[in-house]
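Consider this pair:
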Amino acid sequence: HAEAYAHIKRGRLVAVSSRQPGKLNAFADRFGVAGRFTDYREMFAQAKPDLVHVNTPPNVRLEIFQAAAEAGVPALIVEKPLAIQGEDYLAIADFASDARIKIAINHQLHFHPRRQVLQKLVAEGAIGPVRFIDASARMNMAYQGTHTLQAIAAFNPDATPTSVFGQAAGVEGLRDTPRKHFAPDESLSALTFDNGVSALLRCGTNAPYVLAGDERVNVHKRITVYGERGHVAWTMWSWQTLIDGHVEGGAHDYAAEDVLGQAAMTEAMFDWLEDDRAVHPLHLQAALQDFDIVLKTYMSALHHRVEQPGSPPEPDLINKLRTALKQMERG
């Protein structure tokens, strides 16, 4: 996030907050940040930032949203995942219903230069009407699945999900940790949308490798979008288009793409701050729709039935899923 400010023209880092003084000072020294706070509320009040990047566990999301709104902070870019389960999802949705603060979720992949080219091709109809999207990541739903779910929305914008059929396995990712990134080790979501598009999302060790034989779990995000005239494919390391029988493709440097994606994502928030009509594509309402798919995947896996997005989420879902998957592992 901070490295991106070398490429951002309309903003600069003025303050940072962390409850750990050692990490606070190390970060501030590295990036030349003058304002240093161990209480983020004091940072909001004294530094009066225009934009705050929120890189915290999801269990404190709403608390920070509310404090920022009360302090008059105009905008937030928030790390994923947005929430943990149905209770905080509903609380955030309630907050969003009348909040004036502008919030976007940190899905910087949407703004990677190569992804932007491919998304533009699909939007302009280069592959014809989209019929099917296949997306995956070898990290679980909470860590990278939400990135990949947003990618489905990026290539199929303005569509509303109409059904979710999910499967899940493995409890290691459901153990309590300071990060609070609860998710089953493996999940599969079969999705349908109101425009006729279908999608398949695989997250965890059931997902395919992008780099053959590379056991690092964080390097295998990918998406392929199929239309009536061809397809486009993106991975963290490569791309391909097949349009009317003509194939093009190549490699890209993920790290270089990522810092530029972070910068462009941040610049898009400045666009929104300057013009209310320039709504950020990663805005909070879009993230809420995506997270509803996550919840419905877990509900479907728990009850072995198709779930409809927009219906109320089941309470205490993570604990119920944890119990069910433990029982399944015991046989």
